[in-house]
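FAQ: What does the model actually see?

It sees only this:
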Amino acid sequence: QLQLVESGGGLVQPGGFLRLSCAASGSRFSYHAIGWFRQAPGKERVGVQCMDGNGEIATFADSMKGRLTISRDNTKNTVHLRIDDLMPEDTAVYYCAARQGGCTDSYGHYPDWGQGTRVTVSS
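And it is asked to produce this:
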């Protein structure tokens, strides 16, 4: 089991960028896939992007393809997600989640979650 803490959210103007971070504590971090999900007000939680322990990347959000850069440092138990060219429709709470094994866009398959970090894109 991992404990996860997100940071890096905030208010940003359209066209800007943010770099979200997910810090993990617990054992066997490198065995876990770390997924990013987001939940906009009144909407379901949906997958954004994920990286497994081997560095394989799965992108789930078609609307965000080309604007995402995910990275991880297994020595520091951290995963970062950079989002470029932010749009108002990217406004949401962003969560990181962990599961042993590979990536999936099904949030029910991730047992470990952070508390979320809020991203607001507005002028």
